[in-house]
Amino acid sequence: MKLWLFILKRVIFAFITIIGITFIVFALLHVGGNNLLLSAYINPRLTGPAREQLIQQLTIRFHLNDPIYVQYFYWLQALFSGDLGYTNTPIYSGPVTTAISLFLPNTITLTIIAAILVWIIGIPLGVYSAVKRDSALDHSVRIFSFTLYSMPIYLIAFILIIIFGIELKILPYAFPINSVLASNLPWYKDGISYPTHIILIDALIHGNLTVFWNALLHAILPSLTLALSILAGIIRILRSSMLEVLDQDYVRLARAKGVPEKVVINLHARRNALIPVLTLYGYTIASLLGGTVVVESIFAYPGIGYWTTQAILVNDVGGIMAAALIFGVVFVIASLILDIVYALIDPRIRY
Asked: How confident is the model over 127-135, as a mean pLDDT?
């Protein structure tokens, strides 16, 4: 199959999947009835005729008297025009799109740092575990990976906080930056930095290296928690793939010709062993968005996961459903990109 046809098929499947996600989110929005749906737009203290008048206005605005399938198309039209509704949480009240623009950059920051840590830690451990098969190092790595695999993400977070934050006191474990530093920054408010909302970049823009370093230290523990939560899968898959490659004839031939072992491992074996790992790596990084809900809540890190938790605690339907939509769409788009990249790396999957 030609590459353009493969990409076209994947794009169509991705579009259909996203439409399916929107249908599910829309259905969940209406499960609680109109009163729950409109609760984000109505002041709880508003009573009497004024409240009834506002409900009628909102009912007309959102076409709630129309058939459900008509409501869906109006909602879908608003969705594609950038109107995701309204959210009302303790950390932010306003349009959902604004909330996303404020909180998503912090989550992306943690995810990128976690992805880098996974690659730096997981790839060497997986390779050397396979190369030193059945050695003490191999057994140690396997025990380490199985231990991580069996631990829930919140337990990993608490262990890291106890070790590095409380006992050793070498890493901070709450908020994006130190509260004393934050109080003196005119471009930082309520856990959000300006103008990019990515505090590491904003600190550099404003020329404040002290804040940059402090923000980086604050991001290490939540990012490391995310990284360790998926590290075991990467190590196990790479070890298995590496062992399979090391038994291939071309690797044996390279060794028979006297090629140095480092060249055999790094040039011939590892490159081919990484192909299946790349797919898993991409999917697991995309799935980190789900982990941020727990991790950001534990570390009080104001990202999309922390905002989602706050929305759940106050029964903010608009925020909850918007977060579900974001997580679903991001995962679909990430899967589409991975399928295309994998097709470029290994043309065999196109058939």
From this structure: 87
- Residue 348 binned pLDDT confidence (cut-offs 50, 70, 90): low
Mean pLDDT on 155-176: 92
Q: For residue 343, is pLDDT > 80?
A: no
- Assessment of whether the complete model's pTM goes beyond 0.90: no
User: Using CA atoms, how far apart are residues 205 and 216, in angstroms rounded to an integer?
Assistant: 15
Q: Which residues contact 235 (CB under 8 A, 6 or more apart)?
A: 122, 125, 126, 129, 141, 144, 145
Q: Tell me the per-residue pLDDT of 294-305, one tens digit each, with 9 for 90 and over.
A: 999 999 999 999
Rounded to whole angstroms, the Cα distance separating 82 from 97 reads 7
Sign of the dihedral through C-alpha 286, 291, 296, 297: positive
Structural domains of the chain ordered from first start: 3-83 (no CATH), 106-314 (1.10.3720.10)
Q: Is residue 143 within 8 Å of 236, Cβ to Cβ?
A: no
User: Residue 256: its pLDDT value, please?
Assistant: 84
CB atoms within 10 A of CB 148: 17
Q: What angle do CA 135, 137, 139 make, to 5 degrees?
A: 70
Q: What is the CA radius of gyration of the chain?
A: 24
The residue among 111, 117, 346 whose CA lies nearest residue 241 is 346
Q: How far is CA 197 from CA 162, 204, 216, 276, 309, in A?
A: 29, 12, 14, 35, 20
Q: Is the peptide bond before 195 cis (omega within 30 degrees of 0)?
A: yes
CA distance 227 to 253: 37
Q: What is the mean pLDDT of residues 310-316?
A: 87
CB–CB of 296/288 below 8 Å?
no
Question: How far is 199 from 210, CA to CA, in rounded Å?
Answer: 12
User: What is the per-residue DSSP string for 279-330?
Assistant: HHHHHHHHHHHHHHHHHHHHTT--SHHHHHHHHHHTT-HHHHHHHHHHHHHH
